[in-house]
Structure to design on (1465 residues):
């Protein structure tokens, strides 16, 4: 039996990132993955012959450039191509297009409201202020408010210092931004409903909240603060699908001597005398290591692969109450050609970007009301993309793939999901799109429909929650995943967490993986290989 | 500093906070005049007659948070304040299995022993959180930059109370739940759906929020915060009696009170308030003007935007003041019959809120300018404890109905009757034969409340109690410490920290602030 | 309060990234080098032919520039003057009809949002011209006032005609009555049967006029002016933005967004500027009714000066663009140069520079460290600088009435 320095459970992007930094520091690391492919929710899969689907996560913007650089992912094959623009189709046959060309975008906003075209300058400036502030916290370990350790106190001092770089009124405005609903926040800027609806969408993606729920304005940041080549707020496609991200990280990891084992499901983390010693696989095989790191979400980690006996009772209670309700569905559709959207001007570049079909905040909120009652909405919010316009690797020439993210989709459709209900959910989404694209249905060659049930079953995200735990105040910063356990260390010695259940949370960001690696390396007395924040730019 | 007074102080609005503030100032030596537009003082705390022989508390109808320090400082009991009979909360069940929710214990229905124990524990723990935040209550909210000694002291006290008052575990828990919704917290702690529904009412009543709205734990704490040791009661003579006691105390302190004196304009010269102008055109000079009106009325109507900076006016304009509660007054020819409730129990605070989903659904509609068929109701029958409220053998029922939108789609004209019918039909489900007992009714939608009580949006708290409009951001930052951008103009109403309810605290805090600033003195 | 109707722009073509002004056909015809840039989203010439010839057209003969892209707002209604007076820092209540004044406006914190000019077109009817997009701020500022604000940038075509022979050229083109039009005056007249508004305004510090017409009259207006040249009477040349940049610095006019960050786009604390800090103290009047930012400015006035945007002459001929400034040769860093030009008439480096004050005191000396290239090799040198209180270049012909004719 081999003794590793570290075992990482789960070859999702955070597990691989974490493992890569440990391996870079010279540790002997193995990543264990239950599926026979790596990537977790960051995958490209061929489910229809000739087509590759990024069948879970589908865009890449949050991925930290610091990590990209220090793991040299470009040399390991990663290319992230920025996405261009976005559109919301309106029920009256019109549309709002957020063109990627700034002058055209401005004129398009003005077509809906001249005032809003000017207000967007104020809005962009304000959002940039908050982005700057929050971004600085992403690659840092949250301080523990109950601790008097020098490190925590210093970290709090750092937090306060960043906070105090704002003026007094900016401090209050930031607190308001942090606690307001996106719909109400946008009302302070924009008069046009379709523009408010358009900008609201990013605030509910993946959350169990509606556009009128306090706290959603902040979630917007979670989607707006990604940067590709310095352009804050731009989203990008990974060439070859999201699997290219995990492949590049894996390749980087392996270049440092790391080992990945697929089809190796971990059944249990072994704990002896309050110290984690290794894992037992489903096959019965036992693997030992100095540290065990879980990239599973907090529920799966503590209620799944750990024994209650080994855990403090209060922690089990916390894990049971951890909020991880799934709220999103996904369709991956193979298309025989490009669908027409007659509302758009001929030759418009808008289809290169995101496509939405919800033109008022009220429709967005009503979709949420349905989710609260365990129904999928008949009028859902979707984020549809056709990456094959840029990426020749994902479909045969002339053919296309559409990725459709759907908000909301309940964890348990009234009385539980069945295959028939899943297909009915898929049909609802396809119907909505075809209202705006007459030839859409005829082009469909294959469609994969995924509800939280499928997402959980396949990649092990509990309740299909894409962020591995909801992004509400009780589960952010020093509360993520649980109060007192936000510094990546588990409740038993030599056990760590590196998943999106930890700070700063979900999105293909890599930050939890890197931050947790920093803590492990610190405890093992190794050189810190994780990158520092690039700092204000 | 000399103590000579420069002219007089005018308080715009004779609501309870205006009276409290006026009295404190008069006691401190100011010459104070209160101007009330209505014919009676008290504002939201008043007793009105809505049909020949039937009286009721006009807006607020339960006394549950009048601040003990205010009572003591102003000697309100000597001025005639009677708290009246203490009441409990009874959550009505269609099957007669009603729940009684006391201050520390819950009984009735089919509550499990676990839920009963959890209730006591929950109230205890949450009261501790409320206690930890208390240093913030009776003082001006601290500024977060450019703070003075008092601000630092307030923050230090809160820090100390959180860290050492609560202890590590409770502090962690408080930080966890403090910003989230009551729905998730109640689901963590309790099983009984009816109990959870009834408890959620305290977190959302009067607000544009449902149980699943994040931050409703904070609003629940806000309610607990105001909960005095005396608990809740129905004052005999209605809330008007509370107003009368305040008025007496004010007069005793030398405050002069004028009713039927509607202030049309707060006069500002060179950035300083110099007096008011009444609707009659009468001009009253003052060295200081204190507004008990809400922030929108104060700044946008009475002061006017041209005396304000543009962004400040915009932020006041955008502050959220959508009222969500309608007040319904019913004259009854007898006591309603509710299975499982004695006559004495009928005199308690009755709630209709079946479960969390019921409350959430009632709220859903308000988001879209609609109201639900199944509103959440808070019912009192004050004529049980005070027979002067209705003719012999008859009764009055006072109902707060949530959620009723301020901006009903299509407007309220011609829509009121349907809502009244709706509410009566709902009560009928609990009290068979009820609709036949109704002799007369009066409905105050948020629009009516706005019009009759001069409160923007008809909002209970003169403005939504969401985090972004609380503490140092109430009503908006830049005027959250009772003083305003206009020199000599102060806020003392529920739009200021810590918000609404018949507490008297904003009035108290405003007076302390004015005295501390030495305002109005030469 | 009635919900105001939403003002919407007309449909546009996404292929036409830069909008075309009503003068575009002529502008395009005259442009020899096709050097375009965006000015407020309009396709605008940087240079038509050569920078030198355009610069000297302004300073020695007559230049023509398409002014249409400048942001224009029409402000009317019973509260128009109260609205404007609460918007800007200057007292504009005494601005008579047919007069123009220069103004700046601030946010609540007393930080400059933009500058511009107010045209009192006719009794109670105003036009505000600004550098940047201001509709949102104007509408926000109109809360509680009975005033109508309409963005009219594309609905009004404008040409700027500047230079010592501008008066003679316009008179020859058929516009009469200019001899009595004083600086900052407005005149409504006719040219070849269509209405023209003429204001004696400009951004050059020279004799000059701005002409305002309906977009349909844009080309006839252009042709009328250039006919003077075709008839062989005077030289008339179109000029681009690069030449304008030279003369505006010579004349000491600041450019919000170039010389300093406007408050609306400032992200980091301390990167916005007050009117005092950018040398606009002279347009701040405390002796008038309340205006946005008044309280903050009053407070600032009582505090030591922190910084100033100054007109700075830099010795020598090495280009000082982007240079840091020091309080002595190799001394403490106290500021930086924001914009700079080489002035052909003054033979000097003229710049706009942001300078820190210490304890309210201006630095006694200012030195620029200049990095410059010779045959691709980099060199460093120090140049002494001198603050100019007056415009670098100020010619009496700018305001002489009647102007000299040629």
């Amino acid at each position: 039996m081999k003794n590793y320095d570290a075992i990482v459970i789960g070859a999702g992007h955070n597990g691989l990132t974490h493992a890569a930094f440990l391996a870079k520091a010279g540790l002997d690391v193995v990543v264990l993955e239950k599926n026979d492919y790596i990537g977790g929710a960051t995958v490209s899969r061929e489910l229809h012959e000739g087509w590759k689907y990024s069948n879970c996560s589908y865009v890449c913007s949050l991925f930290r450039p610091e990590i990209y650089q220090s793991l040299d992912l470009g040399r390991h094959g990663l290319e992230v191509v920025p996405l261009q623009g976005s559109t919301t189709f309106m029920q009256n046959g019109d549309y709002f297009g957020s063109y990627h060309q700034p002058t055209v975008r401005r004129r398009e906003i003005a077509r809906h409201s001249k005032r809003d075209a000017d207000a967007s300058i104020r809005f962009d400036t304000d959002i940039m202020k908050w982005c700057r502030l929050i971004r600085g916290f992403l690659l840092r370990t949250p301080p523990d408010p109950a601790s008097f350790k020098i490190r925590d106190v210093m970290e709090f001092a750092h937090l306060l210092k960043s906070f105090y770089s704002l003026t007094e009124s900016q401090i209050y405005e930031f607190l308001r931004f942090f606690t307001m609903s996106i719909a109400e926040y946008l009302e302070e800027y924009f008069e046009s409903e379709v523009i408010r609806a358009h900008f609201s969408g990013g605030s509910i993606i993946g959350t169990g909240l509606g556009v009128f729920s306090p706290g959603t304005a902040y979630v917007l940041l979670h989607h707006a603060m990604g940067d590709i080549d310095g352009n804050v707020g731009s989203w990008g496609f990974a060439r070859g699908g999201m699997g290219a991200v995990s492949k590049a990280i894996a390749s980087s990891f392996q270049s440092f001597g790391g080992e990945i084992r697929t089809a190796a499901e971990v059944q249990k983390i072994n704990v002896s005398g309050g110290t984690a010693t290794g894992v037992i696989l489903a096959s019965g095989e036992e693997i030992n290591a100095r540290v065990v790191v879980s990239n599973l979400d907090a529920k799966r980690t503590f209620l799944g692969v750990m024994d209650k006996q080994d855990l403090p009772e209060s922690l089990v209670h916390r894990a049971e109450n951890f909020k991880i309700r799934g709220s999103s569905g996904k369709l991956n559709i193979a298309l025989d050609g490009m669908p027409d959207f007659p509302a758009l001007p001929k030759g418009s570049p808008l289809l290169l970007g995101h496509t939405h079909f919800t033109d008022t905040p009220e429709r967005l909120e009503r979709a949420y009301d349905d989710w609260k009652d365990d129904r999928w909405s008949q009028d859902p919010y979707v984020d549809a993309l056709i990456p094959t316009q840029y990426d020749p690797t994902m479909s045969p020439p002339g053919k296309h793939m559409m990725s459709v993210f759907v908000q909301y989709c309940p964890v348990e459709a009234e009385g539980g999901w069945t295959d028939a209900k899943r297909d009915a959910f898929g049909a609802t989404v396809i119907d909505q799109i075809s209202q705006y694209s007459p030839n859409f249905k005829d082009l469909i060659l294959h469609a994969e429909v995924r509800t939280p049930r499928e997402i959980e079953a396949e990649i092990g995200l509990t309740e299909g929650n894409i962020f591995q735990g909801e992004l509400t105040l009780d589960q952010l910063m020093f509360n993520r995943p649980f109060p007192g356990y936000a510094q990546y260390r588990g409740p038993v010695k030599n056990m760590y967490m590196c998943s999106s259940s930890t700070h700063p949370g979900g999105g293909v960001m890599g930050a939890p993986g890197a931050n947790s690696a920093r803590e492990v390396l610190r405890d093992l007395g190794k050189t810190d290989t994780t990158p520092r924040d690039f700092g204000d730019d | 500093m000399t103590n000579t007074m420069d002219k007089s102080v005018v308080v715009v609005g004779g609501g309870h906070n205006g009276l409290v503030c006026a009295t404190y100032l008069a006691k401190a030596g100011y010459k104070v005049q209160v101007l009330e537009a209505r014919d009676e003082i008290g504002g939201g705390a008043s007793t009105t007659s809505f049909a020949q022989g039937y009286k009721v508390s006009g807006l607020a109808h339960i006394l549950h948070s009048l601040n003990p320090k205010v009572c003591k400082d102003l000697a309100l009991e000597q001025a005639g304040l009677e708290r009246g009979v203490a009441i409990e909360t009874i959550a009505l069940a269609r099957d007669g299995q009603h729940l009684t929710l006391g201050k520390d214990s819950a009984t009735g229905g089919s509550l499990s022993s676990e839920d009963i124990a959890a209730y006591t524990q929950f109230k205890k723990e949450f009261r501790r959180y409320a206690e930890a935040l208390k240093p913030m209550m009776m003082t001006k909210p601290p500024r977060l930059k450019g703070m003075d000694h008092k601000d630092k002291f307030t923050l230090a006290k809160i820090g100390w109370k959180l860290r050492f008052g609560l202890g590590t575990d409770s502090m962690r828990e408080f930080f966890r739940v403090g910003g989230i919704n009551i729905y998730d917290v109640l689901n963590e702690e309790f099983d009984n759906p009816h109990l959870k529904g009834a408890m959620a009412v305290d977190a959302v009543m009067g607000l544009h929020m449902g149980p699943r709205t994040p931050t409703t734990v904070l609003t629940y704490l806000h309610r607990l915060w105001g909960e005095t040791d005396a608990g809740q009661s129905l004052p005999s003579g209605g809330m008007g009696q509370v107003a009368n006691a305040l008025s007496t105390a004010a007069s005793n302190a030398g405050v002069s009170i004028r009713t039927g004196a509607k202030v049309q304009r707060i006069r500002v010269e060179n950035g300083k308030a110099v007096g008011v102008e009444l609707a009659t055109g009468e001009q009253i000079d003052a060295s200081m003007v204190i507004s008990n009106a809400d922030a929108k009325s104060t700044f946008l109507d009475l002061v006017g935007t041209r005396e304000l900076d543009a962004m400040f006016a915009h932020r006041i304009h955008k502050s959220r003041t959508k009222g969500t509660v309608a007040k319904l007054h019913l004259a009854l020819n007898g006591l309603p019959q509710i299975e499982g409730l004695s006559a004495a129990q009928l005199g308690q605070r009755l709630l209709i809120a079946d479960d969390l989903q019921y409350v959430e659904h009632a709220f859903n509609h308000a988001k879209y300018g609609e109201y639900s068929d199944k509103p959440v109701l808070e019912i009192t029958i004050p004529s049980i404890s005070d027979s002067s409220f209705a003719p012999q053998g008859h009764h009055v029922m006072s109902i707060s109905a949530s959620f009723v939108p301020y901006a009903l789609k299509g407007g309220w004209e011609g829509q009121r009757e349907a809502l009244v019918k709706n509410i009566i039909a709902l009560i009928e489900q609990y009290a068979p034969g009820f609709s036949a007992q109704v002799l007369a009714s009066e409905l105050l939608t948020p629009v009516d409340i706005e019009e009759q009580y001069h409160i923007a949006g008809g909002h209970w708290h003169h403005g939504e109690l969401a985090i972004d409009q609380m503490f140092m951001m109430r009503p908006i930052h830049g005027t959250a410490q009772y003083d305003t951008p206009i020199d000599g103009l102060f806020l003392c109403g529920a739009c200021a920290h810590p918000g609404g309810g018949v507490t008297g605290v904003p009035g108290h805090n405003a007076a302390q602030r004015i005295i501390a600033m030495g305002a109005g003195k030469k | 309060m009635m919900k105001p109707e939403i003002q919407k722009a007309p449909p546009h073509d996404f292929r036409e990234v830069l909008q075309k002004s009503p003068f575009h056909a002529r502008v395009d015809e005259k442009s020899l080098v096709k050097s375009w840039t965006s000015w407020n989203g309009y396709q605008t010439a940087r240079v038509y032919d050569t920078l030198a010839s355009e610069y000297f057209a302004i300073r020695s003969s007559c230049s023509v520039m398409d002014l249409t892209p400048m942001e224009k707002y029409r402000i009317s209604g019973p509260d128009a003057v109260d609205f404007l007076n609460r918007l800007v820092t200057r007292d504009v209540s005494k601005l008579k009809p047919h007069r123009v004044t220069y103004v700046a406006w601030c946010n609540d914190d007393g930080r400059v949002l933009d500058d511009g000019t107010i045209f009192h077109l006719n009794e109670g009817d105003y036009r505000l011209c600004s550098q940047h997009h201001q509709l949102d701020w104007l509408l926000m500022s109109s809360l509680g006032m009975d005033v109508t604000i309409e963005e009219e940038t594309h609905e009004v075509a404008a040409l700027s005609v500047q230079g010592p022979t501008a008066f003679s050229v316009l008179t020859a083109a058929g516009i009469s009555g200019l001899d009595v039009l004083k600086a900052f005056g407005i005149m409504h007249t006719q040219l070849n049967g269509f209405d023209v508004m003429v204001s004696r305004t400009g951004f050059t510090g020279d004799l000059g006029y701005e002409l305002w017409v309906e977009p349909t009259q844009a080309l006839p207006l252009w042709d009328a002016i250039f006919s003077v040249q075709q008839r062989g009477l005077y030289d008339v040349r179109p000029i681009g933005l690069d030449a304008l940049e030279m003369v505006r610095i010579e004349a000491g006019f600041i450019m919000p967004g170039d010389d300093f960050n406007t408050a609306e786009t400032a992200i980091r604390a301390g990167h916005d500027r007050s009117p005092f800090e950018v040398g606009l103290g002279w347009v701040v009047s405390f002796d008038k009714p309340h205006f946005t930012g008044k309280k903050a400015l009053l407070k600032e006035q009582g505090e030591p000066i922190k910084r100033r945007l100054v007109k700075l002459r830099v010795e020598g001929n090495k280009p000082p663009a982007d240079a840091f400034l020091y309080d002595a040769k190799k001394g403490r860093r106290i500021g930086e140069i924001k914009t700079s030009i080489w002035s052909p008439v003054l033979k000097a480096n003229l710049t706009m520079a942001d300078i820190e004050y210490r304890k309210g005191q201006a630095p006694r000396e200012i030195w620029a460290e200049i990095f410059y290239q010779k045959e691709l090799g980099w060199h460093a040198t120090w140049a002494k600088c001198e603050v100019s209180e007056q415009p670098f270049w100020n010619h009496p012909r700018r305001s002489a009435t009647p102007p000299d004719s040629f």
User: Anything to note?
Assistant: Chain C touches chain A through 30 residues (CB under 8 Å). Chain C has a mean pLDDT of 96. The longest strand of chain C covers residues 377-388. The helical segments of chain C are 24-30, 51-60, 80-87, 135-141, 166-173, 218-230, 241-250, 294-301.
